[in-house]
């Protein structure tokens, strides 16, 4: 019975937040002087209107899901990894460079270059964990600062030593990935690629690890009470290092598959402007770091993004509307407001 | 001065206070006694405006009053000394005393005047303090004096003291009781909340006993004694424990000349040697904060020792990891169940499997076995009588006693040769306490070794075959069960010398 | 080398420092009362935008500052309400506030001015530079200290004022008390929420001023996400400065200096990406040296509320 109640309130909270988010979006649309109905219809069309748009939405959700899972995993162990963006970019740029310089092409190239990207990204996150462990450098701040450093460094790599000089002008980018090494599309002519399948498999795998393995148990207990975990014999250092490594690797994978399956090269700003990492972070927070929930919310947030692009194409409402709706969503999820509201109502009802 | 009529407080379905009547006359010390959870603290929180009664009336100076905030209470001349001190460690004593009633020059804080006023006030009531000392540097006894001064500074006529002696050494307790008599002489009235009956008999004029949220007796001191009071508190006679003779065997735990430093790198444990044998309970008595925590953490592997050796069953475990030490056969009831002993937001199931989750049959090759875990957990909570709606409920919804039983279940039912029980019954109800005591004794009778560390003398005396006393990081005395007495222990715990 | 390090470097250091100092002081006052304000960046961005927007309509710099302060203050109250009243996780709320301000300013930029990326018009009036009479006449010092925007001087004045407030006033000691032990403060009849709101409001005002210095002091324009993470640098300045106004002043000077230096380096043959990295690298290095207790406490609070 109490379990049922828990499930219901778990659902009510996000639904309420979505409602408020859309309400605020409505106000924004009205301020922009557009028809609310028309705008939301465009948003729906832009996200799910046709197979093509749906595949765009799913494609966009891939990096968000993976980055979100990375954040979620570290958070489960009690560590706030704000460095997903830098890790994602470092993963992407490493993959883009490695794939071009490997002496062979094909599936092995794909695997190795993605693996290299994950490794570098994982090490970046591990480094922040190491600084916390060894020098008590606050993880929140260090991961955040490393973002700027990583993004600037990646930008340097593709604008100086690894710049694609064959095409002139425009934004700095790396050399194109060979066809044989690309991550194939799921459906021809559509944007969504096999990265989506990978993301879903990893979601399920992560859910299993967290729930059903001893390591997952250690991660959960460390996240819920560090002292209790240590008292029980869990090695905080080890679990922290592993979970930060995995967290960074997942964020790196997000960047790598985006390079190998979508852009086929690293383009400066192409991964940071859409705020994949931050949207992933929101998905993880909204889902309370539950892997399956993170993936579902990531798809929802991706739909808001692609929907907003549709809105921008066809109306005068700028696509920043999706930022606003997302921010309001997270504000209302994080507040204990809704629960308190429900409780107070229940009390009144009982009297 | 003060009268409560028919005060009732409900939290949802639970009735914390039920139709309480109470009165306080001028210049008396009125004690409120009762077990943990009898409703004493709730009652006082209402008097001090931190809670509002569901029904009933409060009269101050014969006028009906509503007390909605601590400010209201202070305005009516009611002051409260909390069980957990309400102090600011980085502020000075004077700053703490005058807090929120600071002498000022316009917007500026007149610290000089504050110091003078506090010094005078302390002198008037015969208390010794240095107004410029930082609270974090002051001993606990002084901190309590600061709390009382604070209330006096605010001009309180009625002073409520909530479990004031819980953290004090026996000598400090004497000082406190003297101060209370002094205060009454100077015209104040005092409500003393406690569960220590000897203190009550020493200092109170009248006594109200609470049990299960109701008044179970209201008596004059002259007309009663500790036996009657404890009967009223508990509702039945307490049985004295008999420890059957067990021939003790070889030493299971051997702590040899161990030193431990605290977080500030000062020696918290100095040259401690303890041996615990099979079939023996060794009690370590002492006021909290005299190095017991550091000793516990060193034995269990949570902190490193700076010198000395620790052996379990002849294996050197000095500075080994927690896991290695546990695998050598240690189980451990931690001193703080919410900090060390459990993850509040985790389920009962997750909390129960902490010590065994890696081992067969609960897990194979790193994968948890759901079915085995469920039957293990269900058996445990049945055997240790943990009352919960489901094993998926999070631990935070368990009462203190139930959670402590859960921890005891986790640690005691394991077949380990050594149990370290730190404050195993702190703040739990009588039922849970008796149950946990029985379990500890049973473990001893099975031939296992138990190291009991407790600041509760009655617990030490009831369970220990041998008693050690810790003071300022050292062992200052050792007694056999036959030769030990409360008086001797008290003296040593307070830093006095014996004989 | 002489072209790298000269007196005008100090001039630009002061200019770069001002936004960090103001936002850092905002973070400090919040940390004092136990609130870990991750939303400084968003508050600054809001101030920068409203300042420019108001300027475009009024063409009056003082009026635009006032409007920016009021607008950002209201926005900071949203953060306060979430964190203080609804006890939302401080970090999550702070991040959401940053998102919201990026979204809202970008949105408004397009709906109000119908531009993308940046807005600028010739009629806008930037912050004036003030020559301070006496100091201006002193040969060396005059070049160094005179001729800054009023917001820079205000920042220095506020540093001193906040120091006096915290150390000498009764209310200042109550601020500290709330941060050190909120339960004790409450039991003594202090209205914790009121004090926390006051701190959040002050931080809103200070961030608005910092944002205005960015958009109307250093330049006279607004571009999307123009704070570029300065709010987070300010947060670090708060930590390095141990939430003490003087400390925040010193640490934000350090960051202002590295920012000024990194602009200098751009003239050399060093890739711009590396010079841009400098402040962040130095911040990380600085964190090895300084550690802050107050901020850690505030952070612990925020962690607590996330569980």
From TrEMBL, chain A:
Membrane association type: Multi-pass membrane protein
Transmembrane regions: 12-40, 60-79, 110-130, 137-158, 192-210, 240-264, 276-304, 324-342
Compartment(s) of residence: Cell membrane
Alphabetized CDD domains for the sequence: TM_PBP1_transp_TpRbsC_like
Keyword Acetylation attributed: no
GO annotation, cellular component aspect: plasma membrane
Molecular function GO labels: transmembrane transporter activity
Main localisation: membrane
PANTHER family in the cross-refs: ABC TRANSPORTER, PERMEASE PROTEIN (PTHR47089), GUANOSINE ABC TRANSPORTER PERMEASE PROTEIN NUPP (PTHR47089:SF1)
Protein name (record): Nucleoside ABC transporter membrane protein
TrEMBL record, chain B:
GO MF: ATP binding; ATP hydrolysis activity
Superkingdom of source: Bacteria
Swiss-Prot/TrEMBL keywords: ATP-binding, Nucleotide-binding
Stretches assigned to the ABC transporter domain: 2-237, 253-497
SMART domains: AAA
Record SUPFAM superfamilies: P-loop containing nucleoside triphosphate hydrolases
Classification via CDD domains: ABC_Carb_Monos_I (cd03216), ABC_Carb_Monos_II (cd03215)
Translocase keyword on record: no
UniProt name for this protein: Nucleoside ABC transporter ATP-binding protein
Phylogenetic classification of the source organism: Bacteria, Bacillati, Bacillota, Bacilli, Bacillales
UniProtKB/TrEMBL annotation, chain C:
Pfam family, one: BPD_transp_2
Subcellular location: Cell membrane
GO molecular function per UniProt: transmembrane transporter activity
GO CC list: plasma membrane
Membrane topology (UniProt): Multi-pass membrane protein
Keyword Cell membrane: yes
CDD domains (alphabetical): TM_PBP1_transp_TpRbsC_like (cd06580)
Annotated keywords: Cell membrane, Membrane, Sugar transport, Transmembrane, Transmembrane helix, Transport
Residue spans crossing the bilayer: 12-31, 38-57, 63-84, 91-113, 150-166, 195-212, 232-258, 270-290
Transmembrane helix recorded as keyword: yes
Protein name per its UniProtKB record: Simple sugar transport system permease protein
Organism: Gracilibacillus kekensis
């Amino acid at each position: 019975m109490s379990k049922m109640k828990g499930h219901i309130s778990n659902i009510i909270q996000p639904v309420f937040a979505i409602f408020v988010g859309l309400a605020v979006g409505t106000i924004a649309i009205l301020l922009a002087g557009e028809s609310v109905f028309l705008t939301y219809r465009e948003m729906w069309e832009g996200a799910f209107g046709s197979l093509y748009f749906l595949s765009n939405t799913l494609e966009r959700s891939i990096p968000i899901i993976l980055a979100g899972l990375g954040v979620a995993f570290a958070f489960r162990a009690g560590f706030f990894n704000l460095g997903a963006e830098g890790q994602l970019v470092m993963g992407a740029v490493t993959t883009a460079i490695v794939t071009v310089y490997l002496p062979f092409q094909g599936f092995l190239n794909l695997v190795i270059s993605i693996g290299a990207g994950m490794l570098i990204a994982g090490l970046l996150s591990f480094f922040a964990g190491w600084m916390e462990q060894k020098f008590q450098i606050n993880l929140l701040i260090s991961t955040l600062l490393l973002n700027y450093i990583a993004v600037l460094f990646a930008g340097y790599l593709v604008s100086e030593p690894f710049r694609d000089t064959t095409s002139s002008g425009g934004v700095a980018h790396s050399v194109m990935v060979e066809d044989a090494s690309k991550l194939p599309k799921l459906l021809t002519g559509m944007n969504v690629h096999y990265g989506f399948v990978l993301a879903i498999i990893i979601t399920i795998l992560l859910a299993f690890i967290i729930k059903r393995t001893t390591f997952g148990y250690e991660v959960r207990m460390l996240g819920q009470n560090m002292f209790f975990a240590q008292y029980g014999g869990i090695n905080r250092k080890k679990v922290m290092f592993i979970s930060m490594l995995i967290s960074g690797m997942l964020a790196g994978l997000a960047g790598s598959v985006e390079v190998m399956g979508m852009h086929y090269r690293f383009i400066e700003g192409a991964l940071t402007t859409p705020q994949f990492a931050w949207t992933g972070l929101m998905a993880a927070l909204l889902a309370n770091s539950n892997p399956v929930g993170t993936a579902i919310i990531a798809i929802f947030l991706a739909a808001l993004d692609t929907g907003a692009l549709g809105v921008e194409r066809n109306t005068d409402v700028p696509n920043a509307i999706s930022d606003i709706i997302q921010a309001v969503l997270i504000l209302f999820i994080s507040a204990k407001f809704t629960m308190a509201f429900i409780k107070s109502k229940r009390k009144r009802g009982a009297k | 001065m003060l009268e409560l009529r028919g005060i009732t407080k409900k939290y949802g379905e639970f009735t914390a206070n039920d139709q309480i009547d109470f009165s306080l006359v001028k210049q008396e010390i009125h004690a409120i006694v009762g077990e943990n959870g009898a409703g004493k603290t709730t009652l006082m929180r209402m008097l001090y405006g931190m809670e509002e009664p569901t029904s009933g009336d409060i009269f101050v100076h014969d006028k009906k009053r509503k007390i909605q905030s601590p400010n209201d209470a202070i305005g009516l001349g009611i002051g409260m000394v909390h069980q957990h001190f309400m102090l600011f460690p980085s502020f000075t004593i004077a700053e703490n005393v005058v807090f929120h009633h600071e002498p000022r020059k316009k917007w500026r804080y007149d610290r000089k005047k504050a110091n003078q006023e506090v010094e005078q006030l302390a002198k008037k009531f015969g208390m010794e303090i240095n107004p410029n000392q930082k609270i974090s540097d002051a001993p606990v006894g002084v901190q309590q004096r600061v709390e009382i001064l604070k209330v006096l500074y605010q001009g309180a006529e009625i002073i409520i003291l909530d479990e004031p002696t819980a953290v004090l050494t026996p000598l400090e307790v004497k000082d406190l009781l003297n101060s209370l008599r002094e205060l009454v002489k100077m015209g104040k009235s005092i409500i003393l909340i406690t569960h220590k009956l000897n203190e009550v008999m020493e200092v109170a004029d009248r006594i109200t006993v609470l049990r299960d949220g109701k008044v179970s007796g209201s008596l004059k001191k002259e007309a009663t004694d500790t036996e009657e009071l404890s009967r009223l508190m508990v509702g039945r006679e307490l049985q004295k424990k008999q420890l059957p003779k067990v021939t003790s065997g070889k030493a299971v735990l051997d702590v040899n000349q161990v030193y431990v430093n605290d977080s500030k790198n000062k020696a918290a444990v100095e040259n401690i040697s303890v041996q615990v044998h099979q079939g023996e309970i060794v009690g370590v008595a002492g006021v909290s904060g005299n190095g017991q925590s550091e000793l516990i953490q060193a034995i269990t592997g949570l902190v490193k020792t700076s010198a000395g050796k620790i052996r379990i069953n002849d294996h050197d475990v000095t500075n080994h990891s927690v896991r290695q030490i546990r695998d050598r056969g240690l189980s451990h009831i931690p001193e703080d169940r919410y900090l060390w002993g459990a993850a509040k937001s985790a389920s009962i199931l997750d909390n129960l499997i902490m010590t065994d989750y890696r081992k067969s049959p609960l897990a194979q090759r790193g994968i948890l076995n759901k079915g085995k875990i469920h039957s293990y957990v269900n058996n445990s909570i049945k055997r240790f009588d943990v009352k919960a709606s489901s094993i998926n409920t999070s631990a935070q919804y368990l009462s203190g006693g139930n959670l402590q039983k859960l921890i005891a279940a986790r640690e005691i039912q394991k077949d380990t040769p050594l149990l370290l029980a730190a404050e195993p019954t702190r703040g739990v109800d009588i039922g849970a306490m008796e149950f946990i005591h029985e379990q500890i004794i049973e473990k001893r009778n099975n031939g296992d070794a138990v190291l009991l560390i407790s600041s509760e003398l009655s617990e030490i005396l009831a369970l220990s075959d041998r008693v050690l006393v810790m003071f300022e990081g050292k062992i200052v005395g050792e007694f056999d069960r036959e030769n030990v007495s409360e008086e001797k222990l008290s003296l040593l715990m307070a830093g006095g010398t014996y004989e | 080398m002489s072209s790298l390090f000269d007196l005008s470097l100090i001039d630009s250091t002061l200019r770069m420092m001002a936004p960090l100092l103001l936002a850092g002081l905002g973070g400090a006052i919040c940390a004092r009362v136990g609130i870990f304000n991750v939303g400084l960046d968003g508050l600054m961005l809001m101030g920068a935008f409203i300042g420019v927007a108001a300027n475009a309509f009024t063409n009056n710099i003082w009026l635009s500052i006032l409007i920016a302060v009021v607008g950002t203050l209201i926005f900071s109250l949203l953060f306060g309400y979430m964190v203080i009243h609804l006890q939302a996780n401080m970090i999550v709320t702070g991040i959401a506030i940053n998102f919201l301000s990026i979204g809202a300013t970008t949105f408004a930029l397009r709906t109000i001015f119908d531009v993308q990326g940046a807005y600028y018009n010739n009629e806008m009036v930037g912050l004036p530079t003030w020559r301070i009479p006496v100091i201006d006449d002193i040969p060396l010092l005059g070049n160094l200290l005179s001729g800054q925007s009023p917001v820079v001087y205000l920042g220095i004045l506020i540093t001193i004022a906040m120091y006096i407030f915290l150390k000498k006033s009764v209310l200042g000691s109550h601020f500290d008390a709330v941060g050190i032990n909120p339960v004790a403060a409450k039991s003594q009849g202090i209205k914790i929420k009121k004090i926390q709101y006051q701190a959040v409001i002050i931080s809103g005002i200070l961030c608005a001023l910092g944002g205005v210095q960015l958009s109307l002091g250093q330049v006279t324009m607004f571009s999307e996400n123009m704070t570029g993470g300065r709010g987070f640098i300010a947060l670090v300045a708060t930590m390095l400065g141990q939430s003490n106004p003087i400390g925040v002043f010193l640490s934000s000077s350090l960051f202002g200096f590295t920012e000024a230096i990194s602009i200098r380096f751009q003239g050399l043959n060093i890739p711009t990406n590396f010079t841009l990295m400098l402040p962040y690298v130095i911040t990380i290095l600085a964190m090895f040296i300084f550690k802050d207790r107050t901020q850690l406490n505030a952070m612990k609070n925020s962690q607590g509320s996330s569980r």
